[in-house]
Specification:
Purple Acid Phosphatase, chain A, domain 2; 11 helices; Metallo-depent_PP-like; alpha/beta; globular; Ser/Thr-sp_prot-phosphatase; 5-stranded mixed β-sheet
Length: 421
């Protein structure tokens, strides 16, 4: 069964085009020439297609679980930056799954004609103009405010709860039971908590709980909004309501399924999760690092200051207009603004507007930027050595990529800033 229908084992998938819509969801169906004209008009929204595999060849492998505590899924009513204490027992707040979500797009457990899941393997971009380097920042980050601990960032998680707990444990941020153990440390998640992996709601519950525990210990755990948060909010709120995609009429529900939406996540999605996601900021500055989810300059469309961007994004979500939310989602899916020859200048535009000496982002997996993808052996197991060992510094040392490609045999990255040379 296709991914997103919730009928088969969870497999790792990857983004081909975060807002592409299958033919059955387009009204009217676009001609080939019309689609070609849109691609020409919006090249930044397109990603080359993956090379098809030979018949019978598997492109997915089962998700692996780290040997670390998991399912730490307390769901306290904490908000972004909230300091209220978490419940004493996780089982007190486990959300109850509804029998079936009314927006389920698969009647009779069969996918609509024309629906295709996202493919796991990413397109290979053998550019040759990006390299993995470790360099000192162009400008030394400002020292942390008195009383605040070290600064850490987390790349895209995409539902891989076990891998997240293992990575946080390895950095000493949580203990053997998955509880905050880092005192006054500051931790920022860069967005994309759900879709593609097996337990997106469990990831959100963990981050919400850690927010309360960190605040009680004198630190904090906060999160930014990614394009998949916008996608999940839209799928829940608007379902199959048509939206003007710029290349025909699409729906959030179809786009969510196409991009790894998990029915189990939708069944467990509660109002507290929606409220928490809706209040996440889009961009922040910490210790001279400009933190954002997407490697795009589209943030400049929403304001010339950090405060303006976050206020405008929140207002759009609160206005609950499907077309306006779709446009926001579409812009946040853009990528690779910092990768080409003019990438350093694009980074400088953002830094000039919002401050900081370096941009730190997720969204675009590092194997994309390096022109590498994972391979599988005959048994379907990934390489013993991951392609990604750490963050990728590029664009003349002005940008740091943090999406290690956990959905494609990569690595879920947790790193302390500033990076050590």
């Amino acid at each position: 069964m296709t991914q997103g229908a919730g009928q088969g084992p969870v497999v790792r998938t990857a983004t081909l085009r975060d807002f592409r819509v299958p033919p059955y969801a387009q009204v009217p169906v676009q001609s080939e020439s019309a689609s070609h004209e849109y691609v020409l008009a919006h090249p930044e929204d397109s990603v080359p297609r993956a090379v098809p595999r030979e018949a019978g060849e598997s492109s997915a492998r089962p998700a692996t679980a780290a040997e670390a505590p998991h399912r730490v899924a307390d769901a306290p009513g904490t908000e972004h930056g909230d300091t209220r204490a978490a419940p004493a027992r996780p089982e007190d707040s486990v959300p109850q799954a509804p029998p079936e979500h009314p927006g389920d797009a698969f009647p009779d457990d069969e996918p609509p004609e024309g629906y295709t899941p996202t493919e796991r393997d990413l397109p290979v971009i053998n550019r040759g103009d990006t390299v993995q380097v470790t360099v000192a920042p162009a400008e030394q980050p400002a020292p942390a405010a008195e009383g605040l601990g070290p600064l850490y960032v987390v790349g895209d998680v995409h539902g891989y709860l076990d891998e997240l707990v293992a990575a946080l444990t390895a950095q000493g941020l949580v203990d053997a039971e998955g509880r905050w153990s880092a005192g006054n440390t500051r931790l920022w998640f860069l967005g994309d908590f759900t879709d593609r992996g097996p337990d997106g709601i469990g990831v959100i519950d963990l981050v919400m709980r850690l927010s309360a525990e960190a605040a009680a210990a004198g630190g904090y755990c906060k999160a930014l909004m990614g394009n998949h948060e916008l996608l999940l909010i839209g799928a829940k709120r608007f379902g199959d309501t048509p939206v003007n995609s710029g290349a025909g009429t699409a729906t959030f529900q179809a786009a969510w399924l196409l991009n790894g939406g998990q029915k189990s996540d939708m069944d467990r999605l509660q109002d507290v999760h929606l409220q928490w996601m809706s209040r996440l900021d889009a961009v922040v500055e910490e210790d001279g690092h400009l933190l954002m989810h997407s490697d795009t300059t589209a943030y400049l469309d929403y304001g010339t200051t950090i405060e303006d961007v976050n206020d405008n994004v929140h207002e759009i979500i609160n206005r609950n207009d499907a077309d306006e939310c779709w446009d926001l989602f579409r812009k946040f899916t853009k990528r690779f603004a910092f990768r080409d020859d003019d990438g350093p200048q694009a980074v400088r535009e953002l830094l000039a507007a919002y401050g900081g000496g370096r941009v730190v982002h997720g969204h675009s997996p590092i194997p994309y930027l390096l022109g590498e993808v994972g391979t599988e052996d005959a048994d379907g197991e990934g390489n013993s050595e991951p392609l990604v060992e750490g963050p990728h510094v590029y664009a003349d040392g002005l940008a740091i990529a943090m999406d290690g490609g956990v959905t494609m045999a990569g690595k879920l990255l947790v790193a302390q800033l500033p990076l050590q040379a």
